[in-house]
Amino acid sequence: MQLIKPDININFVGVRYKAFLLSGTIILLGLLTLFVRGGLRMGVDFAGGTLIQVKFDRPTNPDEIRNALQGTIKNAFIQQVGAKVDNEYLVRTDAIHEELGSLSNKIEDQLNKTYGPGQQVLRVEMVGPKVGHDLRQKALHAIFYAFLFIAVYISWRFEFKLSAGLIMLVVMGLGIYLLDALGLNAVYLIGGALVVTFVLCWYLKLPYALGALLSLVHDILITIGIFAFFNKEFSLEVFAALLTLSGYSLNDTIIVYDRIRENRNKDKKVKFSDMINGAINQTLSRTVLTSMTVFFVILCLFILGGSVIHDFSFAMLIGVVTGSYSSVFVASPILIAYEDLKKKKPAAVSKRAAVETNESKAARSTKKAKKQSPGQADVRKSARG
Amino acid sequence: MKSIGIRALIVGVILVIGILCVIPTFVSTTLPGLSNVMPDKIHLGLDLQGGIHLVLEVDADKAVELRAERFVDEIKDALRSKKIGFTKVVKTGAWDIDVVLPSNEQLNEFNETLKSDFPSLKPATTETTPEGTIVLLTMDQKEVNDLRNNAVTQGLETIRNRIDQFGVSEPDIRPEHGDRILVQLPGIKNPQEAIELIGKMAVLEFKFVAQNVTAQEIQDNKMPPGVKLYPKRPSDRNTQETKIPLEEKTVLTGQHITDAKVEIGQRSFGEAQISLNFDSEGAKIFERLTGDNVGRNLAIVLDGIVYSDPVIKERIPNGRAVISGSFSDEEARAVAIALRTGRLPAPVKILEQRTVGPALGADSIRKGVLASAIGGLGIVLFMMIYYKFSGAIADLALVMNILLILALMALIRATLTLPGIAGIALTIGIAVDANVLIYERIREELRLGKTPRAAIDTGYQRATITIMDANVTSAIAALVLYGFGTGPVKGFAVTLFFGLAANMFTAIFVTRIIFDYLLTERRVKELSI
Questions:
Q1: Over 90: is that where the pLDDT of A86 sits?
Q2: Distance from CA of B504 to the nearest CA of A (A)
Q3: Residue B411 sits in a domain of what CATH number?
Q4: Residues of the domain holding B133
């Protein structure tokens, strides 16, 4: 059986500008939604507060619950979860209760008063502001470290340059140490890491690493944007999904890249963009199949897995789709864009890039080294499929 | 290339070990002698079996403050017994103590008492004012540190004792960084009660009800010196809380309690009450106390609230007392445990609380397993349809992969959580990806006209590095996630990481053996792929 014919030849590369436009638009819309909403709707894990999941013995609605809870909690966010017949609701409030005799008890009493006995509190999560703050910081650091290690691994494996990976590690490590010492927020830390990485990729002539990492950022941004768009809660589980995606979304990219490099050594006469388009088409079957299998199991989790991992599965679903999309429409065309830029205006490019990296001494010194041996980066060998 | 036999042996041994590891999880019979060798069954996380996860913070500073308060009382007692005159002794600031003496005459005697009885208090400043001589006492830094550390270790110990007496199987109570304590109580039925028990200070004090205080004075909150108003617990839920004036001096504390039990009261129609037994010293104090004050009201104060204030009818020589005060049965039980295990050295605050009811836990397991099973089944069928016999080989590897994840979890005693189940499901999806990559490559090579042997060689060789790279990036994410770790998410990271590791082995190594066997031993000419 074959879903995708082996001789398939779609001109993916030809629509790359449209694809860039599409990706750019989605990301921009996502960022805009984020801006308008004033950030993601953080779950209790990160924002602090109390979350209570209640199972009612008969159908009800958020307004009824809100009325029942009047006087006990204010500004509750109430939402039905799971199947309609289950009558399960999440009640979320910013209030926290650090003493004994907890809020959940009061809420249960209050609900039993209105609805009669038999209303079941299934789950209570209370996170104090201190723990919430700790978790936020830890999460941001985790994103940073995941990105750092993946970036180093990718630059090493994709470019067969351990030295490049090590330079990356040292520069990032130093830069981050400095940023951390300045007491900067972890958000800037991540931003800083991104800029440093991309600039390094450019200077060390690591187009594959650049493409892979850009498509990774692309996937994460789109997933976050869609979460913001649906105003879904950003919980610990969703965070776990994002981190997993940062590793998984590279899978398809790695498949395509390996083929590109294999083909590159075969026939040097083919136009670069045609060669890349060929590689995408040759691997299209496995790109689609591998994503499909993962998409299918996550879809099962999304539909059947219950309310607790619902949002986790949702994030993963988006990530798997964008991951495949980006390997075809972002990661591969970036190689072409890189090549074009390098050919057309090398002088202008290096000038602009130099302005971008004034702060990075290490990058500048490596640039000098590279200038002495131009074209070295193009000669690589590959033994991959 | 190693021989098929050796490779098959390796796989066989790993398979047997893996099966042995997961047997306890699925079969409850314990074979004698074997249970020592085999790992325990896989531990379920709180989100699956229900329970409480608490992060508490001990207010260590408060322990020092409380000590300073007791010092004030002790200094007063010491000065009184040594007949040294003083104007007042008060706590100032967090834990400094001001002692005001009428004049410089008492200073020498006072300093001597200080040296002999209170070596951890040091006079910081001494000044003479029209009011008298004021000595500012500060606590030794070492004493402060000891009190702080003790507050955490003793708090931990007390909480542990309370939970033991409360009856929870496999509680996990341990210190975390700073002054934090992690409490995990799996499978608990009555979470609220447990939380209240853990947080109860259980400071028991006996104080006399002040005489000659008028109702007007109480209303105006104007108390004579040495008298303070305390809230009194209402006798039932409908009556309002009242205030009662008590003499500030504590005549007996919970320190002398040897036992506290729940009893059913005779007078109050089967209402629960708590009977206390004092040690010999406590009994002596109590006997003298009651004998000297027949006719007065003695208030029993627990955590600053007056529970009852019975009239002393006669001298009580047997060292027994009863706290009544309209307890519910559960509450009486919690108070009794708290009194038995002693007071907390400092108040604890709940920083984080996660409670999962057993119903939701069971529901989560059911749904998680069902979703994974359907997902897995779909994948298995798909592989068989799409790649025919080769798909079945990949399915075999998939089953072994799941077995190995569970075996590894049992071996290192990792905890299976709901996201952990999701991790296994995800692994199912990712695991067959490896075989998809290999098989697609093999198909491609076959289309180029290669022999099955050559196609398989190239397919595995070319795909292996790609699979490794793809798995390593995911594994990096899993490792970082593990480091970030909080309970359920950590469980996800664990299953994902094991799944990826097992994948490298089953999808590449194990399936290859089967293909090699088919080609070499069975001399298969055509691949079913």
A1: no
A2: 14
A3: 1.20.1640.10
A4: 61-143
